[in-house]
Write a structure and sequence with these properties.
Blueprint lengths: L6 E4 L10 H6 L22 H14 L10 H7 L3 E6 L5 H11 L9 E5 H20 L4 E5 L6 H16 L3 E7 L9 H10 L7 E6 L19 H6 L3 E7 H8 L7 H4 L5 E7 L5 H17 L2 E6 L8 H4 L4 H15 L2
Parallel strand pairs: 1-7, 2-5, 2-6, 3-4, 4-5, 7-8, 8-9
Organism: Frondihabitans peucedani
Protein name: Cell division protein ZapE
Keywords: ATP-binding, Cell cycle, Cell division, Nucleotide-binding
Length: 340
């Protein structure tokens, strides 16, 4: 019996989504590729002992604190360390470990008392409902996980520091990750120092854990984003809902959609096809594209493209600038998405 491909073509530029505070909170769970993430199925690279050590550290962090009684209750609570910071390069499994921690920690069956999101998702929540509204939404959580903590926006960092401080005071545990470029001076130890300095008053509440290793997405071969000369056969090979747009049109459209809504922009899309990819020269456009790539990666949406390979859209001047970490992360993820 012949198999007939089922495919629907849509355009991202036709979509102008909206998102409510409740929907933002509902999305504060691990990306679907980490639904089954656990400490048991994390596969440490045997060449790096710190990866095995990280598993045990996360396991210990997830254990409930010993119950304190009577006059010693307040002292025991204040002496605990409610924060864990996972420092390391791309693709060493930090997000897997963070998701495994989220799954391991106690919470309501609907995950209503623990949250997992990227830095931009938490700042988007503050932007949508205000600071006090965000506190109201998150207070009472047993755990707050922040993936890809960003240090390049002082205003957002201060807001998150204040937010996490209030939540920690109410008894919430916190865990965070951020990336260190593979060739960074000091192999990432300065990233941990930057993190602790920027979160200021919270620094004493975090234990920093260094995870060494190479990007698992490139362990076997130094890969590059797949590019095709004729996009139509690649589109025909897809199943489900496929968005087809010119790359330049998508970049322009992203400027009309708040980054908090990018998750809805790709809602229900199984593959994204981009025609005539070209280098980006405007940093604001590049940063919007990075945020868009993050949402594609979280949803594991396959990407097919023609033109310049997607991991080459960020120019040398961008990679040498202050947002280098973001661009390198996006490049790594674009390689993975075109190889799905």
């Amino acid at each position: 019996m012949s198999h007939e491909t089922t495919r629907a073509i849509v355009s991202l530029t036709d979509r102008s989504p909206s998102i409510s505070a409740a929907e933002i909170v509902a999305h504060l769970v691990p990306p679907r590729q980490f639904d089954g993430a656990s400490l048991d199925n994390y596969r440490p690279d045997p060449q790096y002992a710190s990866q095995t050590e990280a598993v045990e550290a996360v396991r210990a962090f997830a254990e409930p604190a010993p119950a304190a009684r009577g006059l010693f209750r307040r002292r025991a609570a204040s002496s605990s360390t409610p924060g864990l910071y996972l420092d390391g390069g791309f693709g060493v499994g930090k997000t897997h470990l963070l998701a495994a921690l989220w799954h391991r920690m106690p919470g309501a069956p609907d995950a209503g008392t623990k949250f997992f999101g990227t830095f931009i998702e938490y700042t988007a929540l503050v932007g949508a409902v205000g600071y006090q509204g965000a506190i109201k939404q998150l207070t009472g959580a047993s755990l707050i996980c922040i993936d890809e903590f960003e240090l390049d926006d002082p205003g957002d960092t201060m807001i998150m520091t204040r937010l996490l401080g209030e939540l920690a005071d109410s008894g919430t545990k916190m865990a965070a990750t951020s990336n260190t470029p593979p060739n960074a001076l000091g192999e990432g130890r300065f990233a941990a120092s930057d993190f602790l300095r920027e979160i200021q008053a919270l620094s004493g509440r975090f234990r920093t854990l260094r995870i060494d290793g190479t990007d698992y997405r490139r362990r076997e071969v130094e890969a590059h984003a797949v590019v095709t000369g004729d996009l139509d056969p690649a589109i025909d090979a897809q199943e489900g809902v496929v968005s087809v747009d010119d790359f330049a049109a998508v970049i322009e459209h992203l400027a009309t959609v708040h980054p908090s809504k990018y998750v809805k922009l790709i809602d229900g899309v199984d593959a994204v096809a981009l025609r005539d990819v070209a280098p980006l020269h405007d940093q604001t456009q590049a940063l919007r594209f990075v945020a868009f790539v993050d949402r594609l990666y979280d949803a594991q949406v396959r990407v097919v493209a023609s033109g310049v390979p997607l991991d080459e859209v960020f120019g040398a001047d961008m990679l040498a600038g202050g947002y280098r970490k973001k661009y390198l992360r996006a490049m790594s993820r674009l390689v993975a998405l075109t190889l799905l």
